[in-house]
Amino acid sequence: MTSKRFPQVFTVFRKNYKLVPLEVFGKDPYKTLISTLLSSRTKDFVTLNASKKLFKIAPNIKKLSQLSQLEIRNLIYPVGFYKTKAKQLKILPEKIIIDFEGKIPTDRKNLMSLPGVGRKTANLVLNRAFGKPAIAVDTHVHRITNLLGWVKTNTPEQTEKELERVLPKKYWRNINRLFVSIGQQYTSKKKLIDFFEKNGLLKKPQ
């Protein structure tokens, strides 16, 4: 386990951390859920702008439930798949109000019962909004953990399962935010490897 250098990697990544845009919504479960839903297949700065526009009109789940699908669509444009997401965001508040008394669920199973919410989104909400240990694997986490040799996987789903097996639980809460930040700063395989080597995070070939 020590060969994977978990403490060293997390220390270096913390020192080089730059704010991930969507973290501005902090521990607000509603805003975290909605912004994460909007972020799929969309650059963070586009998601951030769309989320701010939406939250100005609908700062909570009740206000969101009062908007029409067309209003939601216009507010979240140009996020990826904005028409589909507008449809989901029209249905979602009613389900939360009826099934969960207007409160964002605090467990993965119930979160994943909501329209448009997959495992990654559920894990991010658990992590960011509720401070629960959950590993949300996106392209950055998948790519970086494979480059570091922590996992040898082909898909984010496989990466999540393998990380749950090998990564000590104390690191689960911070892996997404730190790895996304590093992935956004070092956008190619070469840049990442150069960064790792500069900070002594990769084993030198014998």
The total count of strands amounts to 0
Number of helices: 12
Molecular shape: elongated
Summarize the biggest pleated sheet.
none
Helix coverage percent: 55-70%
| Helix-strand string | HHHHHHHHHHHH
Radius of gyration: 18 Å
The low-confidence runs, each spanning 5 or more residues with pLDDT under 50, are none
Considering the chains and any ligands shown, give keywords for the structure:
single chain, 2 domains, mainly alpha, Endonuclease III, domain 1, Endonuclease Iii, domain 2, 206 residues, 0% strand
Describe the structure.
The protein is mostly helical and 206 residues long. The chain folds into two domains: 83 residues, Endonuclease Iii, domain 2, CATH 1.10.1670; 103 residues, Hypothetical protein, domain 2 (Endonuclease III, domain 1). Helices cover 61% and strands 0% of the residues. The protein has twelve helices and no strands. Helix 2 packs antiparallel against helix 8. The longest helix has 18 residues. The radius of gyration is 18 Å and the shape is elongated. The model has no long low-confidence stretch (mean pLDDT 94).
Topology:
Elements: H1 6-15, H2 29-39, H3 44-57, H4 61-65, H5 69-76, H6 82-99, H7 108-111, H8 119-130, H9 139-147, H10 156-166, H11 172-185, H12 189-198
Helix pairs in contact: 2-3, 2-8, 5-6, 9-11
Write a brief caption for the model.
The protein has 206 residues and is mainly α. It has helices at residues 6-15, 29-39, 44-57, 61-65, 69-76, 82-99, 108-111, 119-130, 139-147, 156-166, 172-185, 189-198.
